[in-house]
Amino acid sequence: MTRTNHITPYLVYVPVVCFFLYRAFFVNGTPWREALAIFLPALFFWTLLEYFLHKFLFHYKATSESTKGFIYAIHGAHHDYPNDPYRLVVPLAVSIPALILFYFLFKMIWTEVYIDIFMASLVAIYLVYDTNHYMSHYGNWKNTYFQKMKKHHLLHHFSDPKKDFGFTTKLWDWVFRSLS
Predict the structure, then answer these.
(1) Is position 38 within any domain?
(2) This prediction's pTM
(3) Hey, CA dihedral for 1, 162, 81, 131, is it positive or negative?
(4) Helices (H), 64-161
(5) What is the domain extent for residue 36?
(6) 42-64: per-residue pLDDT in tens?
(7) Could you tell me if 91 and 132 are in contact, meaning their C-beta atoms sit under 8 angstroms apart?
(8) How far is Cα 38 from Cα 84, in angstroms, rounded to an integer?
(9) Total structural domains in the chain?
């Protein structure tokens, strides 16, 4: 459960993104400007979600053995084996239920038009996150922003795991004072 090939999220989630985009543009007729206006809040939401999940769920100090096992499976193994290429993306056993949960939570407050674009955006951003996270451990892109985020993330792993929880952005580490 703790090991996932870095290609697997693409095989699962690219069709999900295509499904939501198809529904948004071809079934619901969402205009491009409206879609772009929904993408930006999705990006903002992702960065905040990423920070809070990483800090408060993935690094939760569990007391029961079952909860310790769950936390280890979703993130602890990644810290124990940070250079294992099969432990660098979120396991599907975590990301699929999370996707379903968020879909139904948003369905309670939004119409299908907004949900489709928001979910397509959120899942696409998640794929970018997973790719960048994988590359921060196993690759070396020359992009300046990526290099800064890679350094930020590796500080979390090899300097202080109680700091630097953001990966897509340092913004929330700065706001919540968890920046190294």
Answers:
(1) yes
(2) 0.89
(3) positive
(4) 65-71, 77-80, 92-107, 112-138, 144-158
(5) 8-175
(6) 999 999 999 999 999 988 999 99
(7) no
(8) 36
(9) 1
